[in-house]
Amino acid sequence: MRVVTLIKGDGIGPSIMEAAVKVIDASGAKIQWEEAYAGLSAFEKFGNPLPDETLASFDKTRLAFKGPLTTVVGSGFRSINVALRQQYDLYANVRPAKSWAGIKTRYEDVDIVIVRENTEGLYAGLEHYLTPKKDIAESLAVVTRVASERIVHYAFQYARDNQRKKVTVCHKANILKYTQGLFLNVAREVAALYPDIEFDEKIVDAACMHMVMNPHQFDVVVTTNMFGDILSDLTAGLVGGLGLIPGANIGADAALFEAVHGSAPDITGKNLANPTAVIMAGAMMLNHIGEHEAANRVINAVEKVVNEGIYVTPDLNADSKAGTIEMGDAIVRAMA
């Protein structure tokens, strides 16, 4: 029995997480949930967006399953997502974007995995005002050889382990000569150690253009923190939106799995939120801990329900009368 720290999150988090837990429990996986709190709901309840009790649970389990957390734009407490990634050195953020047969989009057969360095870059949190009037602000981007080497190695090893053929590094070394230049140089050095995997490099703005023009040229993409955040939203748009995209945050001895979308306060409590992304993140978690049969049952059931397009949330089928609860129940039935 594997104990997992369960953080239901803010906004739509509790509703989609309840659907996901129901699906995972029905998959036959041997999971024991240990509920903890983080984000705005934790701040309102405990006066701390990341309570000591939550950290103690994660310290013990080294495995967390998390719903979306609210981060106030422009003010308030710092992103708890970033804090967790840095606290537990969850250096690899993995976000797969794959086409669904039942979702009509501009392209078919898109299959891109974004591997994003998760602990430094412009998200390192090193920012401050330069004047007492707070009219000039500065953010520092940190790129290290150690972090660059391990994330590029992770991307190539991921490609090798998952029968992928190509890794593309996305960078801005033409302008940011030192930080992005270091990342690119390290990527070239590491790529030489994997002669069985094709290597490609693209300037990030050009990569965005190429992705929307011909996404099939991309397979595994490795990049720095902020660029990975942006590119993974772009790839989500290619396959049907953020409601379908799971995410994994992997470290040497800890991992956290989540949907990549936000807490969507505008639809909280309306039974409208799509649980697909977080359920698929649960499947990634099951594969991570060796529960491969359970993971396959979950993936096959989700694909069946989404591709049938009947018991899905309105973002997937505007004519659907189903909501979060009904979609979760349909996925459970599909595993029977």
Topology summary:
Elements: E1 2-7, H1 13-26, E2 31-36, H2 40-46, H3 52-61, E3 63-66, H4 80-87, E4 92-98, E5 111-117, E6 127-129, E7 137-139, H5 145-161, E8 166-171, H6 179-191, E9 198-203, H7 204-213, E10 220-223, H8 225-239, E11 246-250, E12 255-259, H9 276-288, H10 292-308, H11 324-334
Parallel strand pairs: 1-2, 1-3, 3-12, 5-10, 8-9, 8-10
Antiparallel strand pairs: 4-5, 4-11, 6-7, 11-12
What does this structure look like?
- This protein is an alpha/beta fold.
- It folds into 2 domains: 1-94 and 240-336, Isopropylmalate Dehydrogenase; 106-225, Rossmann fold, CATH 3.40.50.
- It contains 11 helices and 12 strands.
- The strands form 2 sheets. Strands 2-1-3-12-11-4-5-10-8-9 form a 10-stranded mixed beta sheet, with helices on both faces.
- The model has no long low-confidence stretch (mean pLDDT 95).
